[in-house]
UniProtKB/TrEMBL annotation:
Residues 1-23 are annotated as: Disordered. Residues 808-870 form a coiled coil. NCBIfam families: PRK05729.1, valS. Residues 810-874 form the Valyl-tRNA synthetase tRNA-binding arm domain. The lineage of its organism: Bacteria, Bacillati, Actinomycetota, Actinomycetes, Kitasatosporales. This is Valine--tRNA ligase. Belongs to the class-I aminoacyl-tRNA synthetase family. ValS type 1 subfamily. A motif ('KMSKS' region) lies at residues 534-538. It comes from the Bacteria.
RNA sequence: GGGUGCAUAGCUCAGUGGUAGAGCGCCGCCCUUACAAGGCGGAUGUCGGCGGUUCGAACCCGUCUGCACCCACCA
């Protein structure tokens, strides 16, 4: 007998008895992963004749480590690619990382700050060198986590968005866009982060409701005054006009004249502009062209001066009492000064309004007039929208398409320059006489006195937008580009639909002659805690996936994540659920252990159905159904459904019913046992292969042991043989119903599960005679007795199976239960009768439905007859209870 | 301000017109020789409220309430 103390099995064809009774993930995971990598299973060959299947990793930030959300995403991608690999595709699961410009720079700057230094102390070159150093130190963390998770990526192709090849891609696309007039430089209002000291794009701004103070200020004097309202009083220092609506009669007399701007000696014009809503507030708006995007536009329309009153850190620069104050200090100071002058007409506090914050550091964004580089997105975004509209790219789940369209159809030009040091430097050189030259990747930058390169770098998403092809070697026409572009599917979270997905669409279509970067966008949700709350470090509910992998194994973590993955929907996950998955992995382990102990085999051809028992035919029929079902779910990215289907098939049908029913066969030996051993081997072989993409480790360990095969990683994906046996399925369902019914009866009677009960089992006419031995074993029935007979009507040939459980009857309990069942059956009969008596129903309901109702009525009638008969017999069998009944 | 989605068992969620489901949790009995990380049995829901369509509604329509998320230049 095997004891828990046995060492774990290793390698193919381990003696079955060597398998310990519990699965220990740590014993196999690392070993197996290294074996897979060494054997090159994950290496994608661009010269292969096989059809390609490609998924690129959504590149994690090089600064970070993987959180549960990554583990989730990787599980899905890994499952998809593992299945395709088994299906015979040349599969590329492309790994890599993103340089994450602003995020990484911030991290390294924080490191420097600990040493009391700023990046300026190092200078640009040394700072960038320092970031590379940081990357070298922390980048390995992510790949380590990916290995633990089992990600079947092609490590030989690992890329980083700052790699030389990828820099060439960036320069190439920049040059093309520049030459096509799709990149331009312009001075505009941009979102400026006064802490990061860089421009950020619209989507890097997060709006939150902040409490502010809305003050109303009187500009001008007497009859010629008007009142404007603002939450940013300090910007009034930069006002260069007041705007009113052209048809607003209240202010008609002022348009074209000027009013004096309080706290200054400036007179500013009153202009009429359609943008102003006369119904809002006083209908008069202060105009600060250099510090507000709307005002900027108004200023442009009216030729107003743009007066910048703040520096890059948000400090007031205009001479006077406010000079040097930061914007928030200035705000109070300005209000105080205005109040002193009697200019404050009204205050509303608190006043809640949406305020933009830097998505990286949460600092309040300051709109700022600034010279930046822009991508003219109009033609690109239209193409990106059309590719989805005309079906060349499918978004899954399709409800998410509306979000995508909402964005690509209303896109503003994209500000791509960042005042950072870490990133792809803008490949533009400026000459001494104002020349502007965009330098392509193979071109020499202009040399000579007075030439210098633009100091800005590109938005991170500029390079990650090229990821589906830059990783393959583009702009060279490499074999990999030919083979693996377009990618097959993009698997990513809905949260970066705009940041990343839309950019890849725009760049892919533009760079690759109208070929979209992927055929399908499969969007998943966000991982949440067990109560559906967002995971965050500050809230304290964030989980390090490594902790759970250590405790329960990678398979358990993966299975839990896959099981929660309904398309586009957030995934709650708790430790309890990981335990449940661990239990499942252990169950798979033990079921295989049972099979090996009983000589299950995959040798030789599968016996033909004519030779097989109904039990064997049933499980093979079910197996093939599940293969088909799994395929359908995979093709629809229904990870939760496929995991659940496999879970229930494996545990309930194979590991419980089939294994239990087989025990009798194995015990009896002979030809039937031989056949069943082959069937059990087949069922486990296929089930392990079906499970492998989701739980790769335990399935590999077991499959190689069971089959002696090289590796399930490169085994064939199961195919539906088409074998179905409805008759056998009905027969086994009947057995299950009977067994369940009698078990329930036993439990109700207080009989202990292990207690052998004298009983007769009359299966005459049921067609279930072949299962008598198995049922006796499952039901712990002994030789015949006499006395009370409990019966259950089976849907097989309408015959009755009679069970004799003499001496084991608690009459009161049984009467109570039978009475309850009778009431239920009578209710069912009444319900079905009502329905079948309803002419409208009969006229309109489909035949299938009517037949179903008829069948239900028939069953109810049979139940009533049976229960009535049982109740009638009950009082005569007043034998005392035996075994635990009270 | 606009948009989208969600409200189903104690918790987290499946279920797109025909007898209400899963996992976890809960109750009871069992170490039945693959597995106690297990086995068997059981309880639990006016499917958010109100109307409507339909022979029939968790599901379709309207409406109300409560959440969530996304987008947005009303000072």
């Amino acid at each position: 007998m095997t004891e828990n103390t046995q060492p774990p099995a290793s390698g193919p064809h381990a003696a079955p008895a060597d398998l310990p009774t519990q699965y220990t993930p740590a014993d196999v995971e690392g070993k197996l992963y290294e074996r897979w990598v060494e054997r090159g299973y994950f290496t994608a060959d661009a010269e292969s004749a096989k059809d390609p299947y490609t998924i690129v990793i959504p590149p994690p930030n090089v600064t970070g480590s993987l959180h549960l959300g990554h583990a989730f995403e990787h599980t899905l991608i890994d499952a998809l690619t593992r299945r395709k690999r088994m299906q015979g595709y040349e599969t590329l699961w492309q790994p890599g990382m993103d340089h994450a410009g602003i995020a990484t720079q911030n991290v390294v700057e924080r490191e420097l700050a600990k040493e009391g230094k700023s990046r300026h102390d190092l200078g640009r070159e040394a700072f960038v060198e320092r970031v590379w150093q940081w990357k070298a130190e922390s980048g390995g963390q992510i790949s380590g986590q990916m290995r633990r998770l089992g990600d079947g990526v092609d490590w030989s192709r690992e890329r980083f968005t700052m790699d030389e090849g990828l820099s060439r891609a960036v320069q190439t696309i920049f040059k093309r866009l520049f030459d096509d007039d799709l990149i331009y430089r312009a001075e505009r209002i941009i979102n400026w982060c006064p802490r990061c000291l860089t421009a950020i794009s619209d989507i890097e701004v997060e709006y939150q409701d902040d409490e502010g103070e809305l003050v109303s200020i009187r500009y001008g004097e007497g009859d010629d005054s008007l009142v404007v309202a603002t939450t940013r009083a300090e910007t009034m220092l930069g006002d260069t006009a007041v705007a009113v609506h052209p048809e607003d009669e209240r202010y008609a007399h002022l348009v074209g004249r000027t009013v004096r701007l309080p706290l200054t000696d400036r007179e500013i014009p009153v202009v009429a502009d359609e943008h102003v809503d006369p119904g809002f507030g006083t209908g008069a708006v202060k105009v600060t062209p250099a510090h507000d995007p709307n005002d900027f536009e108004i200023g442009r329309r009216h030729g107003l001066p743009q007066l910048t009153v703040m520096d890059e850190r948000g400090n007031i620069t205009v001479h006077g009492p406010f000079q040097g104050l930061d914007r928030f200090e200035a705000r109070s100071a300005v209000v105080a000064a205005l109040r002193a002058e009697g200019r404050i007409v009204a205050e509303k506090r608190p006043y809640t309004h949406a305020v933009g914050h830097c998505s990286r550091c949460k600092t309040t964004v300051e709109p700022r007039l600034s010279m930046q580089w822009w991508v003219k997105v109009d033609p690109l975004a239209r193409a990106a929208g059309d590719a989805v509209r005309d079906g060349r790219v499918a978004i899954h789940p399709k409800e998410m398409s509306s979000r995508y369209f909402e964005w690509v159809d209303n896109l503003h030009d994209w500000c791509i320059s960042r005042q950072l040091w870490w990133g792809h430097r803008i490949p533009v050189w400026y000459g001494p006489d104002g020349e502007v030259v965009c330098v392509g990747p193979d071109e020499e930058p202009p040399a000579g006195e007075g030439w210098h390169q633009d100091t800005d770098v590109l938005d991170t998403w500029f390079s990650s937008g090229l990821w589906p092809f830059s990783t393959l070697g583009w702009p060279e026409r490499t074999e990999s580009v030919e083979k693996f572009y377009p990618n097959s599917v993009l698997v990513t979270g809905y949260d970066i639909l705009f940041f990343w997905v839309a950019r890849m669409m725009m760049f892919g279509l533009y760079a690759m002659d109208g070929t979209p970067p992927f055929h399908t966008i499969a969007l998943h949700g966000m991982v949440r805690d067990q109560f559906g709350k967002k995971m965050s470090k500050s809230f304290g509910n964030a989980v390090n996936p490594l902790d759970w992998m250590d405790a329960y194994g990678s398979d358990a973590v993966r299975f839990t994540l896959a099981r929660g993955a309904n398309p586009g929907v957030d995934v709650p996950i708790g430790e309890d659920w990981v335990q449940a998955s661990r239990n499942f992995a252990n169950k798979v382990w033990n079921a295989t252990r049972f099979a090996l102990l009983n000589g299950a085999t995959v040798e030789g051809p599968l016996p033909s159905p004519e030779e097989l028992s109904a039990t064997d035919r049933w499980i093979l029929s079910r197996l093939n159904s599940v293969v088909a079902e799994t395929d359908a779910y995979y093709d629809d990215y229904q990870f939760a459904k496929l995991s659940d289907a496999l879970f229930h098939f494996a545990w309930d049908e194979v590991f419980d019913w089939y294994v239990e029913l087989s025990k009798t066969t194995f015990a009896a030996g002979g030809r039937p046992a031989e056949l069943s051993r082959r069937v059990l081997g087949e069922v486990l072989d296929v089930t392990l292969r079906l499970l492998h993409p989701v739980i790769p480790f335990v399935t590999e360990e077991l499959w190689t042991t069971l089959t002696g095969g090289e590796s399930v990683v490169v085994a064939d994906w199961p195919a539906d043989s088409g074998f179905r046996d409805a008759e056998a399925e009905r027969e086994i369902e009947a057995v299950q119903r009977l067994v369940t019914e009698v078990r329930r009866f036993r439990a109700d009677q207080g009989l202990q599960p292990g207690q052998r009960v004298p009983a007769t089992l009359d299966l005459t006419g049921t067609g279930l005679a072949a299962h008598e031995e198995a049922m006796r074993a499952l039901l712990r029935l002994q030789a015949a007795g006499d006395g009370f007979t409990a019966t259950a009507t089976l849907p097989v040939g309408g015959a009755t199976v009679a069970l004799d459980l003499s001496g084991a009857i608690d009459v009161a309990a049984e009467r109570k239960r039978l009475t309850k069942d009778l009431a239920a059956a009578e209710k069912e009969l009444a319900g079905t009768n009502a329905k079948l008596g309803n002419e409208a129903f009969l006229a309109k309901a489909p035949d299938q439905v009517v037949d179903k109702i008829r069948a239900r009525r028939a069953t109810a009638e049979e139940d009533i007859a049976r229960i009535t008969a049982q109740l009638a017999r009950l009082p005569q069998t007043l034998a005392g209870p035996v075994g635990g009944a009270s």
